[in-house]
Design a protein that fits this description.
The protein is α/β, with parallel strands linked by helices. Helix content is 34%, strand content 21%. It folds into 2 domains: 24-172, Rossmann fold (3-Layer(aba) Sandwich); 205-376 and 458-501, Dihydrodipicolinate Reductase, domain 2, CATH 3.30.360.10. It has helices at 34-49, 69-83, 90-96, 110-127, 144-153, 179-192, 208-218, 249-253, 256-274, 283-296, 302-308, 440-450, 459-478, 494-501, and strands at residues 24-29, 57-63, 100-104, 133-137, 167-172, 198-201, 232-240, 309-315, 317-319, 322-324, 342-348, 358-364, 371-378, 398-404, 408-417, 423-432, 484-487.
Amino acid sequence: MAGASEGVVELGSHPRPERALPPCALVIFGGAGDLSRRKLLPALYNISLDRKLSEHFVILAFSMEDLDDESYRALARKGIEEHSRRPLTAEGWRSFAPMLHYARGRFTEPADYQKLKKTVAELDRQYATGGDHAFYFAIPPDFIDSCSAGLKDAAMITRPQTGRPFTRVVIEKPAGHDLASASEINDRLSRYFDEQQIFRIDHYLGKETVENLMVLRFANAVFEPLWSARFIDHVQITVAERDGVGSRGGYYEGAGALRDMVQSHLLSLLCMIAMEPPWTTDADAVRDAKLDVLRSLHPLEPEDVAQWVVRGQYSEGLVEGEKVRGYRQEDRIAPDSSVETFVALRCFVENWRWAGVPFYLRTGKRMAKRATEIAIQFNALPRILFNARPRAPLPPNVLTIRIQPDEGLALSIISRTAGEPVRLSPINVDFHFKTESPDAYETLLCDVMLGDQTLFMRRDTVEAAWRFVQNIRDAWEAAPAEPAFYSAGSWGPVESALMIAADRRSWRVF
Protein backbone atom coordinates (compact mmCIF):
# COMPACT_ATOMS: atom_id res chain seq x y z
CA MET A 1 0.00 0.00 0.00
CA ALA A 2 1.67 3.18 -1.14
CA GLY A 3 -0.80 5.62 0.38
CA ALA A 4 -4.40 6.32 1.28
CA SER A 5 -7.27 5.94 -1.20
CA GLU A 6 -8.97 8.94 -2.74
CA GLY A 7 -11.98 10.31 -0.90
CA VAL A 8 -10.83 9.39 2.61
CA VAL A 9 -8.91 11.24 5.30
CA GLU A 10 -5.25 10.27 4.98
CA LEU A 11 -3.42 8.76 7.93
CA GLY A 12 -1.06 11.73 7.83
CA SER A 13 -3.77 14.27 8.59
CA HIS A 14 -2.97 16.54 11.52
CA PRO A 15 -5.35 16.03 14.47
CA ARG A 16 -5.32 19.79 15.19
CA PRO A 17 -6.78 22.39 12.83
CA GLU A 18 -4.21 24.39 10.86
CA ARG A 19 -4.16 28.06 11.74
CA ALA A 20 -2.41 31.08 10.27
CA LEU A 21 0.84 31.94 12.07
CA PRO A 22 0.63 35.21 14.00
CA PRO A 23 3.06 38.15 13.82
CA CYS A 24 6.18 37.42 15.86
CA ALA A 25 9.78 38.40 16.53
CA LEU A 26 11.74 35.18 17.01
CA VAL A 27 14.96 35.86 18.97
CA ILE A 28 17.41 32.95 18.79
CA PHE A 29 19.98 32.92 21.59
CA GLY A 30 22.99 31.16 20.09
CA GLY A 31 21.66 32.00 16.64
CA ALA A 32 25.09 31.52 15.04
CA GLY A 33 25.63 28.11 16.62
CA ASP A 34 25.43 24.58 15.27
CA LEU A 35 21.79 23.94 16.21
CA SER A 36 20.66 27.10 14.44
CA ARG A 37 22.73 26.42 11.34
CA ARG A 38 21.74 22.76 11.01
CA LYS A 39 18.14 22.74 12.24
CA LEU A 40 16.44 26.03 13.07
CA LEU A 41 17.34 28.15 10.05
CA PRO A 42 16.63 25.36 7.50
CA ALA A 43 13.29 24.72 9.23
CA LEU A 44 12.36 28.39 9.15
CA TYR A 45 13.36 28.59 5.49
CA ASN A 46 11.05 25.68 4.65
CA ILE A 47 8.18 27.27 6.60
CA SER A 48 8.81 30.39 4.54
CA LEU A 49 8.74 28.35 1.31
CA ASP A 50 5.31 27.07 2.31
CA ARG A 51 4.19 30.70 2.74
CA LYS A 52 3.08 30.05 6.31
CA LEU A 53 5.02 32.88 7.96
CA SER A 54 3.21 36.10 8.68
CA GLU A 55 4.37 39.15 6.71
CA HIS A 56 4.96 40.61 10.20
CA PHE A 57 7.61 38.02 11.13
CA VAL A 58 11.28 38.66 11.84
CA ILE A 59 14.23 36.55 13.04
CA LEU A 60 16.93 38.05 15.28
CA ALA A 61 20.01 36.02 16.16
CA PHE A 62 21.66 37.00 19.45
CA SER A 63 25.12 35.51 19.86
CA MET A 64 28.74 36.25 20.72
CA GLU A 65 30.26 35.86 17.23
CA ASP A 66 31.51 38.99 15.49
CA LEU A 67 28.88 39.24 12.74
CA ASP A 68 26.48 41.75 11.27
CA ASP A 69 23.23 41.29 9.33
CA GLU A 70 24.93 40.54 6.01
CA SER A 71 27.56 38.14 7.34
CA TYR A 72 24.88 36.37 9.38
CA ARG A 73 22.76 35.96 6.27
CA ALA A 74 25.75 34.39 4.54
CA LEU A 75 26.14 31.94 7.46
CA ALA A 76 22.43 31.15 7.32
CA ARG A 77 22.51 30.63 3.56
CA LYS A 78 25.34 28.11 3.89
CA GLY A 79 23.46 26.22 6.61
CA ILE A 80 20.32 26.08 4.49
CA GLU A 81 22.25 24.92 1.43
CA GLU A 82 23.79 22.07 3.43
CA HIS A 83 20.91 20.99 5.65
CA SER A 84 17.53 22.02 4.23
CA ARG A 85 15.24 19.18 3.16
CA ARG A 86 14.43 21.24 0.06
CA PRO A 87 17.01 23.01 -2.11
CA LEU A 88 17.72 26.69 -1.72
CA THR A 89 16.22 28.64 -4.61
CA ALA A 90 16.90 32.22 -5.67
CA GLU A 91 13.26 33.15 -5.22
CA GLY A 92 13.01 31.43 -1.85
CA TRP A 93 16.16 33.15 -0.58
CA ARG A 94 15.03 36.59 -1.79
CA SER A 95 11.87 36.18 0.27
CA PHE A 96 13.56 34.73 3.36
CA ALA A 97 16.85 36.65 3.70
CA PRO A 98 15.36 40.06 4.64
CA MET A 99 13.79 38.47 7.73
CA LEU A 100 17.25 37.65 9.15
CA HIS A 101 18.98 40.09 11.51
CA TYR A 102 21.87 39.83 13.94
CA ALA A 103 22.72 41.36 17.34
CA ARG A 104 26.07 40.66 18.92
CA GLY A 105 26.06 40.21 22.68
CA ARG A 106 27.19 38.20 25.68
CA PHE A 107 24.72 36.04 27.54
CA THR A 108 26.02 37.15 30.95
CA GLU A 109 26.38 40.89 30.33
CA PRO A 110 23.40 43.01 31.53
CA ALA A 111 24.31 45.95 29.29
CA ASP A 112 23.99 43.75 26.21
CA TYR A 113 20.36 43.00 27.09
CA GLN A 114 19.59 46.71 27.10
CA LYS A 115 21.05 46.89 23.58
CA LEU A 116 19.03 43.80 22.63
CA LYS A 117 15.87 45.45 23.93
CA LYS A 118 16.43 48.48 21.68
CA THR A 119 17.10 46.27 18.65
CA VAL A 120 13.96 44.20 19.25
CA ALA A 121 11.89 47.37 19.68
CA GLU A 122 13.19 48.70 16.36
CA LEU A 123 12.33 45.43 14.62
CA ASP A 124 8.90 45.41 16.27
CA ARG A 125 8.20 48.82 14.72
CA GLN A 126 9.71 47.88 11.35
CA TYR A 127 7.79 44.59 11.03
CA ALA A 128 4.68 45.55 13.04
CA THR A 129 4.92 42.46 15.24
CA GLY A 130 2.61 43.89 17.87
CA GLY A 131 5.16 43.02 20.58
CA ASP A 132 4.82 39.23 20.15
CA HIS A 133 8.14 37.66 21.12
CA ALA A 134 9.45 34.08 21.17
CA PHE A 135 12.90 33.51 22.66
CA TYR A 136 14.63 30.31 21.53
CA PHE A 137 17.40 29.23 23.92
CA ALA A 138 19.73 27.34 21.53
CA ILE A 139 22.36 27.47 24.26
CA PRO A 140 23.94 25.18 26.87
CA PRO A 141 21.73 24.73 29.96
CA ASP A 142 24.26 26.64 32.11
CA PHE A 143 23.20 29.87 30.39
CA ILE A 144 19.43 29.44 30.81
CA ASP A 145 19.29 31.29 34.13
CA SER A 146 21.50 34.21 33.06
CA CYS A 147 19.58 34.66 29.79
CA SER A 148 16.23 34.56 31.59
CA ALA A 149 17.46 37.04 34.19
CA GLY A 150 18.84 39.32 31.47
CA LEU A 151 15.49 39.38 29.68
CA LYS A 152 13.62 40.07 32.92
CA ASP A 153 15.95 42.87 34.03
CA ALA A 154 15.55 44.45 30.59
CA ALA A 155 11.75 44.25 30.99
CA MET A 156 11.41 42.04 27.90
CA ILE A 157 9.17 39.42 29.50
CA THR A 158 5.44 40.07 29.64
CA ARG A 159 3.31 37.98 31.96
CA PRO A 160 0.86 35.58 30.31
CA GLN A 161 -2.44 37.06 29.27
CA THR A 162 -5.39 36.36 27.04
CA GLY A 163 -4.62 37.36 23.48
CA ARG A 164 -1.58 39.45 22.60
CA PRO A 165 1.18 40.44 22.98
CA PHE A 166 2.80 37.17 24.06
CA THR A 167 6.20 36.13 25.40
CA ARG A 168 7.30 32.53 24.96
CA VAL A 169 10.57 30.73 25.60
CA VAL A 170 11.82 27.52 23.99
CA ILE A 171 14.18 25.24 25.93
CA GLU A 172 16.28 22.59 24.19
CA LYS A 173 17.01 19.20 25.70
CA PRO A 174 18.71 18.09 27.81
CA ALA A 175 17.12 20.17 30.55
CA GLY A 176 19.52 19.03 33.27
CA HIS A 177 21.67 15.97 33.75
CA ASP A 178 19.64 14.33 36.54
CA LEU A 179 16.43 14.79 38.51
CA ALA A 180 17.91 17.37 40.89
CA SER A 181 19.40 19.56 38.15
CA ALA A 182 16.25 19.32 36.01
CA SER A 183 14.14 20.42 38.99
CA GLU A 184 16.57 23.27 39.67
CA ILE A 185 16.35 24.48 36.04
CA ASN A 186 12.55 24.32 36.24
CA ASP A 187 12.57 26.25 39.52
CA ARG A 188 14.71 28.98 37.98
CA LEU A 189 12.58 29.19 34.85
CA SER A 190 9.47 29.56 36.99
CA ARG A 191 10.94 32.74 38.50
CA TYR A 192 10.75 34.43 35.11
CA PHE A 193 8.12 32.59 33.06
CA ASP A 194 4.75 31.03 33.68
CA GLU A 195 4.49 27.34 32.76
CA GLN A 196 2.22 28.17 29.83
CA GLN A 197 5.02 30.30 28.37
CA ILE A 198 7.65 27.54 28.47
CA PHE A 199 8.07 25.23 25.47
CA ARG A 200 10.44 22.32 26.27
CA ILE A 201 11.30 20.85 22.92
CA ASP A 202 11.82 17.18 22.06
CA HIS A 203 12.19 17.02 18.30
CA TYR A 204 11.05 13.37 18.22
CA LEU A 205 7.56 14.51 19.17
CA GLY A 206 7.44 16.71 16.07
CA LYS A 207 7.96 13.84 13.66
CA GLU A 208 4.91 13.22 11.50
CA THR A 209 4.72 9.51 12.31
CA VAL A 210 4.90 10.16 16.07
CA GLU A 211 1.99 12.58 15.79
CA ASN A 212 0.13 9.93 13.79
CA LEU A 213 0.33 7.49 16.71
CA MET A 214 -2.66 9.22 18.28
CA VAL A 215 -4.54 9.14 14.98
CA LEU A 216 -3.70 5.46 14.48
CA ARG A 217 -4.97 4.54 17.92
CA PHE A 218 -7.95 6.80 18.40
CA ALA A 219 -9.28 7.28 14.86
CA ASN A 220 -9.35 3.57 13.95
CA ALA A 221 -11.85 1.38 15.77
CA VAL A 222 -10.00 -1.77 14.71
CA PHE A 223 -6.96 -1.04 16.92
CA GLU A 224 -8.12 0.49 20.20
CA PRO A 225 -10.15 -2.58 21.39
CA LEU A 226 -7.00 -4.71 20.92
CA TRP A 227 -4.68 -2.22 22.67
CA SER A 228 -4.36 -3.95 26.04
CA ALA A 229 -2.89 -6.86 27.96
CA ARG A 230 -5.73 -9.10 26.72
CA PHE A 231 -4.32 -9.15 23.20
CA ILE A 232 -0.75 -7.78 23.31
CA ASP A 233 2.18 -9.95 24.38
CA HIS A 234 4.84 -7.24 24.49
CA VAL A 235 6.06 -3.99 22.91
CA GLN A 236 9.52 -3.20 21.53
CA ILE A 237 10.76 0.36 20.96
CA THR A 238 14.05 0.73 19.09
CA VAL A 239 15.99 3.90 18.29
CA ALA A 240 19.12 2.78 16.43
CA GLU A 241 21.75 5.14 15.05
CA ARG A 242 24.41 4.12 12.55
CA ASP A 243 26.64 7.12 13.30
CA GLY A 244 29.07 7.39 16.17
CA VAL A 245 29.45 10.41 18.43
CA GLY A 246 31.32 12.36 15.75
CA SER A 247 32.11 15.92 16.88
CA ARG A 248 29.84 15.64 19.94
CA GLY A 249 32.34 13.71 22.04
CA GLY A 250 32.64 16.42 24.70
CA TYR A 251 28.87 16.56 25.14
CA TYR A 252 28.39 12.81 25.04
CA GLU A 253 30.97 12.15 27.76
CA GLY A 254 28.73 14.10 30.14
CA ALA A 255 25.48 12.62 28.89
CA GLY A 256 25.50 9.04 27.63
CA ALA A 257 22.66 7.17 25.98
CA LEU A 258 20.52 6.94 29.13
CA ARG A 259 20.29 10.71 29.56
CA ASP A 260 20.49 11.62 25.89
CA MET A 261 17.94 9.17 24.48
CA VAL A 262 16.06 7.11 27.08
CA GLN A 263 15.01 9.98 29.35
CA SER A 264 13.53 11.94 26.48
CA HIS A 265 12.95 10.19 23.15
CA LEU A 266 12.24 6.60 24.18
CA LEU A 267 10.03 7.47 27.14
CA SER A 268 8.14 9.95 24.94
CA LEU A 269 7.43 7.18 22.42
CA LEU A 270 6.41 4.85 25.26
CA CYS A 271 3.91 7.45 26.46
CA MET A 272 2.37 7.81 23.00
CA ILE A 273 1.87 4.05 22.74
CA ALA A 274 0.65 3.39 26.28
CA MET A 275 -1.44 6.48 27.12
CA GLU A 276 -5.17 6.32 27.77
CA PRO A 277 -7.49 8.17 25.36
CA PRO A 278 -7.48 11.86 26.35
CA TRP A 279 -10.89 13.46 26.56
CA THR A 280 -9.83 16.08 24.00
CA THR A 281 -6.83 16.89 21.79
CA ASP A 282 -6.16 20.07 23.79
CA ALA A 283 -2.56 20.31 24.98
CA ASP A 284 -3.07 19.74 28.70
CA ALA A 285 -5.44 16.80 28.21
CA VAL A 286 -2.88 15.04 25.99
CA ARG A 287 -0.03 15.84 28.37
CA ASP A 288 -2.06 14.66 31.37
CA ALA A 289 -2.50 11.29 29.63
CA LYS A 290 1.25 11.02 29.00
CA LEU A 291 2.06 11.94 32.58
CA ASP A 292 -0.19 9.13 33.84
CA VAL A 293 1.95 6.63 31.90
CA LEU A 294 5.20 7.87 33.46
CA ARG A 295 3.65 7.81 36.93
CA SER A 296 2.54 4.21 36.29
CA LEU A 297 6.02 2.96 35.39
CA HIS A 298 7.24 0.42 37.92
CA PRO A 299 10.30 1.94 39.65
CA LEU A 300 13.44 -0.10 38.99
CA GLU A 301 15.19 -1.21 42.17
CA PRO A 302 18.96 -1.93 42.12
CA GLU A 303 18.32 -5.66 41.64
CA ASP A 304 16.00 -4.88 38.71
CA VAL A 305 18.64 -2.68 37.11
CA ALA A 306 21.23 -5.43 37.43
CA GLN A 307 18.96 -7.95 35.71
CA TRP A 308 16.87 -5.91 33.28
CA VAL A 309 19.04 -2.97 32.19
CA VAL A 310 22.03 -3.40 29.87
CA ARG A 311 24.52 -0.65 29.17
CA GLY A 312 26.97 -1.04 26.33
CA GLN A 313 29.71 0.82 24.49
CA TYR A 314 30.75 0.37 20.87
CA SER A 315 34.20 -0.83 19.98
CA GLU A 316 35.81 -0.72 16.54
CA GLY A 317 34.03 -2.56 13.76
CA LEU A 318 32.72 -2.40 10.21
CA VAL A 319 29.97 -0.04 9.07
CA GLU A 320 28.97 -0.39 5.40
CA GLY A 321 32.22 -2.24 4.78
CA GLU A 322 34.43 0.48 6.28
CA LYS A 323 36.41 0.10 9.49
CA VAL A 324 35.40 2.64 12.15
CA ARG A 325 36.87 3.58 15.52
CA GLY A 326 35.59 2.47 18.86
CA TYR A 327 34.06 5.00 21.26
CA ARG A 328 37.23 5.26 23.36
CA GLN A 329 39.22 6.20 20.26
CA GLU A 330 36.85 9.02 19.24
CA ASP A 331 37.86 12.68 19.60
CA ARG A 332 37.49 14.21 23.08
CA ILE A 333 36.74 10.84 24.68
CA ALA A 334 38.66 9.54 27.71
CA PRO A 335 40.67 6.40 26.82
CA ASP A 336 39.13 4.55 29.78
CA SER A 337 35.61 6.03 29.46
CA SER A 338 32.75 3.93 30.83
CA VAL A 339 30.03 6.12 29.29
CA GLU A 340 27.28 4.05 27.69
CA THR A 341 26.51 4.40 23.97
CA PHE A 342 23.84 1.66 24.17
CA VAL A 343 21.02 0.98 26.62
CA ALA A 344 18.44 -1.80 26.62
CA LEU A 345 15.88 -2.27 29.36
CA ARG A 346 12.61 -3.90 30.32
CA CYS A 347 9.89 -1.96 32.09
CA PHE A 348 6.23 -2.31 33.03
CA VAL A 349 3.33 0.16 32.99
CA GLU A 350 1.40 -0.82 36.10
CA ASN A 351 -2.18 0.01 35.27
CA TRP A 352 -5.27 -1.96 34.30
CA ARG A 353 -4.67 -1.75 30.53
CA TRP A 354 -1.03 -2.90 30.53
CA ALA A 355 -0.74 -5.15 33.59
CA GLY A 356 1.90 -7.79 32.92
CA VAL A 357 2.90 -6.55 29.44
CA PRO A 358 6.66 -5.91 29.20
CA PHE A 359 7.95 -2.93 27.25
CA TYR A 360 11.45 -3.46 25.87
CA LEU A 361 13.41 -0.32 25.02
CA ARG A 362 16.78 -0.12 23.29
CA THR A 363 18.90 2.59 21.76
CA GLY A 364 22.47 2.73 20.58
CA LYS A 365 25.06 4.40 18.40
CA ARG A 366 27.06 2.63 15.69
CA MET A 367 24.31 0.06 15.24
CA ALA A 368 23.75 -2.12 12.19
CA LYS A 369 21.15 0.22 10.75
CA ARG A 370 19.64 3.65 11.29
CA ALA A 371 16.04 3.01 12.28
CA THR A 372 13.39 4.07 14.76
CA GLU A 373 10.43 1.77 15.10
CA ILE A 374 7.77 0.60 17.53
CA ALA A 375 6.69 -3.04 17.27
CA ILE A 376 3.50 -4.22 18.98
CA GLN A 377 3.51 -8.01 19.12
CA PHE A 378 0.12 -9.59 19.67
CA ASN A 379 -0.45 -12.80 21.59
CA ALA A 380 0.52 -16.12 20.04
CA LEU A 381 -2.11 -18.25 18.34
CA PRO A 382 -3.56 -21.14 20.33
CA ARG A 383 -2.24 -24.54 19.25
CA ILE A 384 -5.36 -25.53 17.30
CA LEU A 385 -6.51 -25.59 13.66
CA PHE A 386 -3.71 -24.29 11.40
CA ASN A 387 -1.35 -23.96 14.36
CA ALA A 388 -2.00 -27.45 15.75
CA ARG A 389 0.91 -29.41 14.24
CA PRO A 390 3.05 -27.12 12.10
CA ARG A 391 6.76 -27.79 11.65
CA ALA A 392 7.26 -24.57 13.62
CA PRO A 393 4.61 -22.58 15.51
CA LEU A 394 3.08 -19.84 13.40
CA PRO A 395 4.55 -16.43 14.27
CA PRO A 396 2.27 -13.96 16.06
CA ASN A 397 0.85 -10.88 14.37
CA VAL A 398 3.02 -7.77 14.69
CA LEU A 399 2.08 -4.15 14.06
CA THR A 400 5.22 -2.18 13.21
CA ILE A 401 5.26 1.61 13.21
CA ARG A 402 8.31 3.00 11.39
CA ILE A 403 9.24 6.50 12.50
CA GLN A 404 12.44 6.88 10.48
CA PRO A 405 13.85 6.68 7.91
CA ASP A 406 11.10 4.86 5.95
CA GLU A 407 8.04 6.36 7.61
CA GLY A 408 4.95 4.17 7.62
CA LEU A 409 3.49 1.08 9.23
CA ALA A 410 3.15 -2.61 8.53
CA LEU A 411 0.88 -5.34 9.89
CA SER A 412 2.23 -8.87 9.74
CA ILE A 413 -0.54 -11.43 9.12
CA ILE A 414 -0.64 -15.13 8.27
CA SER A 415 -1.75 -16.06 4.77
CA ARG A 416 -2.04 -19.18 2.67
CA THR A 417 0.67 -19.74 0.10
CA ALA A 418 -0.60 -20.91 -3.28
CA GLY A 419 -0.07 -24.59 -4.04
CA GLU A 420 -0.57 -27.99 -2.46
CA PRO A 421 -0.44 -28.99 0.31
CA VAL A 422 -1.76 -26.06 2.33
CA ARG A 423 1.15 -23.86 3.36
CA LEU A 424 0.91 -20.82 5.62
CA SER A 425 3.41 -17.99 5.86
CA PRO A 426 3.55 -14.44 7.25
CA ILE A 427 3.07 -11.51 4.89
CA ASN A 428 3.20 -7.75 5.50
CA VAL A 429 0.39 -5.36 4.76
CA ASP A 430 2.65 -2.33 4.31
CA PHE A 431 1.89 1.41 4.25
CA HIS A 432 4.45 4.01 3.16
CA PHE A 433 3.96 7.74 3.35
CA LYS A 434 4.19 9.01 -0.21
CA THR A 435 4.45 12.70 0.49
CA GLU A 436 7.53 14.33 1.99
CA SER A 437 6.90 15.09 5.64
CA PRO A 438 7.87 18.41 7.22
CA ASP A 439 10.96 18.33 9.38
CA ALA A 440 10.15 18.00 13.08
CA TYR A 441 11.51 21.47 13.81
CA GLU A 442 9.18 22.96 11.20
CA THR A 443 6.16 21.54 13.03
CA LEU A 444 7.45 22.55 16.45
CA LEU A 445 8.46 26.08 15.50
CA CYS A 446 5.00 26.67 14.03
CA ASP A 447 3.44 25.38 17.26
CA VAL A 448 5.58 27.78 19.32
CA MET A 449 4.27 30.72 17.33
CA LEU A 450 0.71 29.41 17.64
CA GLY A 451 1.10 28.82 21.36
CA ASP A 452 0.18 25.12 21.02
CA GLN A 453 2.01 23.09 23.70
CA THR A 454 0.61 19.67 22.76
CA LEU A 455 3.95 18.34 21.49
CA PHE A 456 6.06 19.96 24.22
CA MET A 457 7.04 18.57 27.60
CA ARG A 458 5.43 19.99 30.73
CA ARG A 459 7.45 20.39 33.91
CA ASP A 460 5.78 17.53 35.78
CA THR A 461 6.26 15.20 32.79
CA VAL A 462 9.96 16.05 32.47
CA GLU A 463 10.55 15.40 36.15
CA ALA A 464 8.56 12.15 36.10
CA ALA A 465 10.77 10.89 33.26
CA TRP A 466 13.91 11.89 35.13
CA ARG A 467 12.60 10.18 38.27
CA PHE A 468 12.34 6.85 36.44
CA VAL A 469 15.79 7.22 34.86
CA GLN A 470 17.37 8.43 38.10
CA ASN A 471 16.91 5.00 39.72
CA ILE A 472 18.97 3.44 36.93
CA ARG A 473 21.64 6.11 37.18
CA ASP A 474 21.86 5.73 40.96
CA ALA A 475 22.20 1.94 40.69
CA TRP A 476 25.03 2.29 38.17
CA GLU A 477 26.86 4.80 40.34
CA ALA A 478 26.45 2.60 43.43
CA ALA A 479 27.97 -0.41 41.62
CA PRO A 480 30.39 0.92 38.96
CA ALA A 481 31.19 -1.54 36.19
CA GLU A 482 32.59 -1.62 32.68
CA PRO A 483 29.94 -1.35 29.97
CA ALA A 484 29.30 -4.40 27.79
CA PHE A 485 31.22 -3.90 24.55
CA TYR A 486 29.75 -4.46 21.12
CA SER A 487 31.26 -4.17 17.66
CA ALA A 488 30.33 -1.13 15.63
CA GLY A 489 27.90 -2.22 12.92
CA SER A 490 26.18 -4.82 15.13
CA TRP A 491 22.85 -4.78 17.01
CA GLY A 492 24.45 -4.21 20.40
CA PRO A 493 26.08 -6.35 23.08
CA VAL A 494 25.21 -10.02 23.52
CA GLU A 495 24.03 -9.17 27.04
CA SER A 496 21.08 -7.34 25.48
CA ALA A 497 20.02 -10.46 23.60
CA LEU A 498 20.40 -12.55 26.76
CA MET A 499 18.30 -10.09 28.75
CA ILE A 500 15.25 -10.37 26.50
CA ALA A 501 15.87 -14.11 25.99
CA ALA A 502 15.36 -14.59 29.73
CA ASP A 503 11.69 -13.81 28.99
CA ARG A 504 11.64 -16.30 26.07
CA ARG A 505 11.54 -13.43 23.58
CA SER A 506 14.00 -11.92 21.12
CA TRP A 507 14.77 -8.55 19.62
CA ARG A 508 13.45 -7.82 16.18
CA VAL A 509 16.01 -7.75 13.38
CA PHE A 510 15.29 -5.42 10.48
